[in-house]
Design a protein that fits this description.
single chain; mainly beta; 1 helix
């Protein structure tokens, strides 16, 4: 019965993780017009609890959280960990004529950490890498006779990063005591639980984004409307290596006569994370079509293809 309960809990836990991960991959993460450039709007590359720590996360290891910025931290896990986070972003978009406010909530990450015993730990998960999401329009005169056109730009999609990693921790120094005397005072420094940890992550960057541009001319111009679309997708792997050095210090400050003044514990930690250079492979498709415009539906429907190019 004991093993049956463990199996059932593991299956439920895995099902929740997979379902949540699929939701995080499919979610709309941004409504920024700047996401039309490059890979989109880049997301935070740190765990949810470390958004305010920036690069200092590389030197952080705790027994109850997953720090995927440095895979060497997994060996510090004291128990299985399921970790996720939600961010709410507020947007204000404006131009000379219109101002608009929007808010968007999104899942930052889904990760699981597992202590394996004997200095070993492992973790896996997914988090958004970049996001594409926008809708823009503008009107301009395109011919000398005054013929105008409306340009509508749209984009959606994004890229997700998944990781699977492990690390190993080993005590590096034996405990030792150092005493320093200053006049009538003595500082006792004891070195506790010092270790070095090494780890590696296997990463998978994947996803797709779709970009569109509709050109709608004046109805009386006799010019074919145009529907342009571009789709891009990628899926490629990489490796990230990490190292952690941690030393615990206990400092006791006392008088020579033995009267204790104070005792304080300090952790000195140094971390290193390095990702191998990797050329990411893309596939893309560019499509241009003549189109009919429906004023009742306010949309274009493709009529015939005039250009198609696939790469990758």
């Amino acid at each position: 019965m004991k093993y049956l309960n463990i199996i059932i809990r593991s299956l439920v836990f895995t099902l929740v993780f997979v379902s949540s991960a699929l939701v995080s991959v499919a979610q709309l993460n941004t409504i920024s017009p700047y996401s039309r450039f490059g890979l989109g709007e880049l997301e935070s590359q740190t765990p949810s609890y470390g958004h305010g720590l920036s690069g200092s996360m590389i030197a952080l290891s705790t027994p109850f959280s997953v720090n995927f910025t440095n895979p060497a931290s997994y060996s510090s896990l004291a128990r299985p960990v399921f970790q996720t986070g939600v961010t709410v972003n507020n947007f204000q978009l404006e131009n000379a004529d219109v101002s608009e406010r929007n808010s968007l909530s999104k899942i930052n990450e889904m990760s699981i950490g597992i202590p394996l015993g004997k200095g070993l730990g492992a973790a896996f998960g997914v988090f958004p890498f970049s996001s594409v999401g926008y809708e823009l329009s503008e009107n301009s005169v395109v011919l000398p006779d005054g013929t105008s056109a409306e340009y509508r730009y749209s984009g959606n999609g994004g890229y997700t990063k998944g990781f699977l990693g492990t690390s190993y921790k080993k005590n590096y120094f034996k405990d030792s005591v150092v005493k320093t005397a200053k006049g009538l005072e003595v500082d006792t420094v004891k070195y506790l639980n010092s270790y070095v940890s090494l780890g590696v992550n296997g990463n998978l960057l994947f996803g797709s984004a779709d970009y569109g541009r509709d050109v709608i001319y004046d109805e009386l111009s006799g010019i074919y409307h145009r529907k342009e679309s571009r789709g891009a997708s990628m899926g490629d792997g990489s490796l990230t290596f990490g190292a952690l050095f941690k030393k615990n210090l206990r400092i006791k400050h006392e008088y020579r006569i033995g009267e204790s003044v104070k005792t304080s514990d300090w952790d000195v930690t140094a971390g290193l994370s390095y990702s191998l250079e990797n050329n990411v492979g893309f596939t893309s498709e560019n499509l241009i079509q003549n189109a009919n415009y429906s004023s009742s539906l306010d949309e274009l429907s493709a009529q015939d293809t005039i250009f198609l190019l696939r790469r990758g």
